[in-house]
Write a structure and sequence with these properties.
Layout (H helix, E strand, L loop, with lengths): L10 H11 L6 H16 L2 E5 L6 H16 L2 E6 L2 H23 L5 E3 L9 H6 L13 H18 L16 H5 L21 H11 L2 E5 H9 L8 E6 L5 H8 L2 E3 L1 H11 L5 H20 L3 E3 L4 H21 L8 H27 L9 E6 L2 E2 L2 E2 L3 E6 L3 H9 L3 E6 L9 H7 L29 E5 L6 H4 E5 L13 H14 L3 E4 L3 H14 L4 E3 L5 H10 L4 E4 L1 H6 L9 E4 L10 H12 L4 H18 L10 E5 L3 H4 L3 H5 L6 E3 L2 H12 L1
Parallel strand pairs: 1-12, 1-13, 2-4, 2-5, 3-4, 5-12, 14-19, 14-20, 15-17, 15-18, 16-17, 18-19
Antiparallel strand pairs: 6-11, 7-8, 8-11, 9-10
């Protein structure tokens, strides 16, 4: 039963109780953030909160979320980008918070974790076996085939032990290909009522538990699916809190991206089997052969125009897939279970093929500046194998989708340690579909009836607040920009770079996290410094990233070099990490199809495409990388940017304004001296 506000303790009382229960101390930024979140929930005004590492932002949004759920009787959804944060919330933060608040609010708050159906083991597929999967090139490798068999055998054994069927609880994990053998998409699922395992279905049990919970923890991908699909995935809710909100646009874009391969069409042919007339299936098989031939002949990269041969084969594929769907007919309840399952599996893949072909064909209907989708052809490396070419189509932007399906449906709080770029929320607000130049967030005032009346302007109302950080950046860290180095080139790292890096690592006594723009650069630097220095140097890719990070944290003399996942995924407080080195400003690659298309679209509308797209991307990633240095109040160290453009280029000011307020220097001797003293 919902409880009235006059019975519940105040937000400050609940926050104090929660902080004391976890053995912490209230921080000004945490209190300010909690009050702002509370006010946002009461008024219905969306909120963006930048909260630096060490603020205690999880409690700052969980406490007002719990209070609202208890008071209103409605579920609050908390969305994260990473599994690590999901696990932290579900395994550590929420159990402690629920226990701490039980006495104050009269009962123990409940919580659940909910993921997409593909993340749960399907007992029916485990019983009947998987259909033919699209060929990704790995099946030609006998080692891959034997590994797949071992993984599937492990999954069968695990199925009798697991209580949740959640893939993330399987340690060590299995390949995506192995997991597909025992999981289904929402379209392939028979449904709880038709499936013989419906009452024991792990996905359905998770959804049922989520429907009863005060707080539901999910991920940005499922949040996007809930917004994109025509049916409800998440339980009824009126508030969404998005942690790691700097990742939201990329995760939603990923969900909204479709691909088409010859292997998919070939697999659809096999799924159709003898369910429909052979001559109809033959048309689809011919389309598969045509796709393979044309994809192999076409140059890879972004497509500004649709080549005539590709237009032809996509039209044939679209029509052949539609003919197969029509021939399979509607889903008949009179069919036996085996037939129903086979039809569902075939239709799911056929609809994906048909819809993707249609989307690509329609992507080129508008003039270049008015297009909504970008199309490109590419091949990916998976496990050392080059996959056959895939045609991909992705939205140029998701602002309209988020504005209508997220901000238009419920009160939304977005938070991260990195949301203000160039000193403003505007860059990310545009990507989210929120109007820019909003007023700062106000502390909570008034009563629960402070909902803003409807306005003629349908733009979402929002406010932004930066609650700062408990760290004194200007006293704890130095930002060193190697202004004297030549700008980075396209031919790999230059000798002057290695000399600079050697001097810094030597002064730091190891203790270095090297963040590189590519794996090629990371390996090149690791190989070179292993020749020059005696410190242990680990490089991403030589072992699992988690194991490498553990080794790095355990030995103060060790260095760790790597690329993207290290920019955002490393949390090593203490003296093991006292130097963060960035090889170059992390602009997107010039040939990145999505970034380049977005940049061109901005320029077609008269905007600054470079600043809006490339510089914003670089600022966000650079701020995340720099944030690896200070992870606790006692940490001290140096961030070294070995890209002189940060000091000399016109956009350097925008990038520097996106970073924490470290004391800045361009003097090599000053930095080496500081590192030596820190190391002594």
């Amino acid at each position: 039963m919902p409880r009235t506000a006059d019975i519940l303790p105040s937000l400050r009382e609940l926050l104090t109780t929660a902080v004391e229960a976890v053995g912490g101390a209230e921080r000004p930024g945490q209190v300010t953030m909690a009050e702002a979140v509370h006010n946002s929930i009461k008024t219905g005004e969306h909120l963006a909160v930048q909260a630096g590492t060490g603020t205690g932002k999880s409690l700052a949004y969980l406490v007002p979320a719990v209070r609202h759920a208890i008071e209103s009787g409605r579920t609050v959804v908390v969305s994260t980008a990473t599994i690590a944060l999901q696990r932290q919330l579900v395994d550590r933060d929420l159990p402690r918070l629920a226990k701490a608040l039980k006495q104050s609010i009269g009962r123990e708050p409940t919580f659940a974790i909910l993921k997409g159906r593909r993340n749960y083991l399907c007992l029916h597929r485990l019983d009947t076996g998987a259909p033919e999967e699209p060929d990704d090139g790995g099946l030609f490798d006998p080692f891959a085939v034997s590994a797949l068999g071992r993984h599937v055998k492990r999954l069968f054994e695990w199925s009798s032990e697991t209580e949740t069927g959640d893939r993330d609880e399987l340690v060590p994990g299995v390949t995506d290909q192995a997991w597909r053998q025992v999981s289904v998409s929402a379209k392939e699922c028979l449904g709880k009522d038709k499936c013989p395992f419906g009452t024991d279905c792990f996905a359905e049990l998770a959804r049922a538990e989520a429907g009863r919970a005060d707080l539901v923890v999910t991920n940005h991908a499922l949040l996007a699916i809930d917004a994109l699909q025509g049916y409800q995935v998440l339980p009824e809710h009126d508030v969404v809190i998005i942690d790691e909100a700097h990742e939201l646009v990329d995760r939603v874009t990923s969900v909204a991206t479709a691909e088409l391969t010859a292997g998919m069409v070939s697999a659809a042919v096999k799924r159709c089997g003898r369910q429909i007339a052979e001559d109809i299936v033959d048309r689809l098989e011919e389309a598969s052969e045509g796709i393979k031939e044309i994809f192999d002949d076409l140059p890879q990269g972004r497509m500004d125009d649709l080549p005539r041969p590709l237009h032809g084969v996509l039209s044939v594929t679209r029509d052949a897939a539609h003919a197969c769907i029509t021939a399979l007919g509607p889903d008949r309840s009179s069919q036996d279970l085996e037939s129903t399952t086979a039809r569902r599996q075939a239709v799911a893949l056929l609809e994906e093929i048909h819809d993707t072909a249609v989307r690509v064909l329609e992507a080129f209907d508008a003039d270049t500046g008015q297009r909504r989708d970008v199309v490109w052809l590419s091949s990916d490396m998976v496990g050392g194998n080059l996959r056959p070419p895939a045609l991909r189509v992705a939205p140029l932007g998701v602002a309209g989708l988020l504005r209508e399906r997220l901000f238009g449906e419920c009160t939304t709080v977005l938070t991260s340690a990195t949301l203000t770029l160039g000193g403003s929320f505007d860059a990310l607000a545009r990507q989210w579909g929120l109007p820019v130049e909003q007023r700062p967030a106000q502390k909570a005032e008034g009563t629960a009836t402070d909902i803003t009346p409807p306005a003629d302007n349908d733009a979402p109302h929002w406010s932004g607040i930066d609650v700062g950080s408990p760290f004194t950046h200007e006293k704890s860290g130095i930002l060193y920009v190697a202004r004297h180095l030549p700008p980075p080139g396209r031919d790999g790292l230059q000798p002057a770079f290695f000399d600079e890096l050697e001097g810094l690592v030597n002064a730091a006594g190891g203790r270095t996290l090297g963040l590189f723009s590519s794996m090629r650069a990371a390996r090149q630097a690791a190989d070179e410094l292993r020749e020059r220095l005696d410190f242990p140097i680990l490089c991403q890719g030589e072992d699992s990233t988690s194991l490498l990070v553990s080794k790095f944290a355990e030995d103060e003399a060790t260095c760790l070099f790597g690329t993207l996942s290290l920019w955002q995924g490393v949390d090593v407080p203490g003296s093991s990490l006292q130097l963060v080195v960035v090889d170059r400003i992390p602009f997107p690659r010039p040939d990145d199809p999505l970034a380049s298309a977005r940049q061109r679209a901005v320029e077609a509308r008269g905007g600054n495409g470079f600043l809006t797209v490339a510089a914003t991307h670089a600022a966000l990633l650079l701020a995340q990388g720099v944030g690896r240095l200070l992870r606790s109040n006692d940490d001290k160290g140096v961030v070294a940017i070995l890209d002189s453009r940060l000091a000399t280029a016109r956009y350097g000011g925008f990038l520097r304004a996106s970073l924490p307020p470290f004391w800045t220097t361009y003097d090599q001797s000053v930095v080496r001296g500081a590192l030596t003293r820190l190391n002594s």
